[in-house]
């Protein structure tokens, strides 16, 4: 399996890397969130642009992205605009979604771009190609906030992401039982051992799924999400606690 190197961080080698989301409504909130990163253990920062109060305003979003990049010049940065259909904060039509994502790619301000698998095949493939042309790692993803699909479906979605050119393949599901968490973990290790050419990022959300956020090194997930105060998805735990647990599990 290939690894993906973003600045000095390598995804797909060693312990899962910790990604911390930046969640804010405006510039002042963003500055507060950035200050809150001091003393936290993380490897990647995710800018969740859909939380902004003017999230559909491309110029405003790019200004905020510029602020984040200026504050974190050496940190791997993931730009995410999560659509409402997959748990995001700001409903926008597809053309606005792709305009924002493609503007972030062209800006030269982000290292990784989040692209939703089910946002439209032609547009997704076009955006992946744009990312590659601009030296931005494409993270293709899917989020199911209601259920956990069958193992074969989870593996199939991850394989599709890979086939469409993803540098990183991500899926998040909502378990309704402990058995659902096992389905996600089993799908992850099957994909990792049999099909993966690129790093995987998988998780079961909510309290039931917390163990999946910790077990990546065992099952094949290369990155996990820890909060810096405000969680961007159910089940996230604090970044420092996450680092401690990952180190214990790795025998460090």
From TrEMBL:
<dbReference type="InterPro" id="IPR001381">
    <property type="entry name" value="DHquinase_I"/>
</dbReference>
<feature type="active site" description="Schiff-base intermediate with substrate">
    <location>
        <position position="170"/>
    </location>
</feature>
<keyword id="KW-0057">Aromatic amino acid biosynthesis</keyword>
<feature type="binding site">
    <location>
        <begin position="46"/>
        <end position="48"/>
    </location>
    <ligand>
        <name>3-dehydroquinate</name>
    </ligand>
</feature>
<dbReference type="GO" id="GO:0008652">
    <property type="term" value="P:amino acid biosynthetic process"/>
</dbReference>
<dbReference type="GO" id="GO:0003855">
    <property type="term" value="F:3-dehydroquinate dehydratase activity"/>
</dbReference>
<feature type="binding site">
    <location>
        <position position="82"/>
    </location>
    <ligand>
        <name>3-dehydroquinate</name>
    </ligand>
</feature>
<protein>
    <recommendedName>
        <fullName>3-dehydroquinate dehydratase</fullName>
        <ecNumber>4.2.1.10</ecNumber>
    </recommendedName>
</protein>
<feature type="binding site">
    <location>
        <position position="236"/>
    </location>
    <ligand>
        <name>3-dehydroquinate</name>
    </ligand>
</feature>
<dbReference type="GO" id="GO:0046279">
    <property type="term" value="P:3,4-dihydroxybenzoate biosynthetic process"/>
</dbReference>
<feature type="binding site">
    <location>
        <position position="213"/>
    </location>
    <ligand>
        <name>3-dehydroquinate</name>
    </ligand>
</feature>
<feature type="active site" description="Proton donor/acceptor">
    <location>
        <position position="143"/>
    </location>
</feature>
<feature type="binding site">
    <location>
        <position position="232"/>
    </location>
    <ligand>
        <name>3-dehydroquinate</name>
    </ligand>
</feature>
<dbReference type="Pfam" id="PF01487">
    <property type="entry name" value="DHquinase_I"/>
</dbReference>
<dbReference type="GO" id="GO:0009073">
    <property type="term" value="P:aromatic amino acid family biosynthetic process"/>
</dbReference>
<comment type="similarity">
    <text>Belongs to the type-I 3-dehydroquinase family.</text>
</comment>
<dbReference type="InterPro" id="IPR050146">
    <property type="entry name" value="Type-I_3-dehydroquinase"/>
</dbReference>
<keyword id="KW-0028">Amino-acid biosynthesis</keyword>
<comment type="function">
    <text>Involved in the third step of the chorismate pathway, which leads to the biosynthesis of aromatic amino acids. Catalyzes the cis-dehydration of 3-dehydroquinate (DHQ) and introduces the first double bond of the aromatic ring to yield 3-dehydroshikimate.</text>
</comment>
<dbReference type="GO" id="GO:0009423">
    <property type="term" value="P:chorismate biosynthetic process"/>
</dbReference>
<dbReference type="InterPro" id="IPR013785">
    <property type="entry name" value="Aldolase_TIM"/>
</dbReference>
<comment type="subunit">
    <text>Homodimer.</text>
</comment>
<keyword id="KW-0456">Lyase</keyword>
<keyword id="KW-0704">Schiff base</keyword>
<comment type="pathway">
    <text>Metabolic intermediate biosynthesis; chorismate biosynthesis; chorismate from D-erythrose 4-phosphate and phosphoenolpyruvate: step 3/7.</text>
</comment>
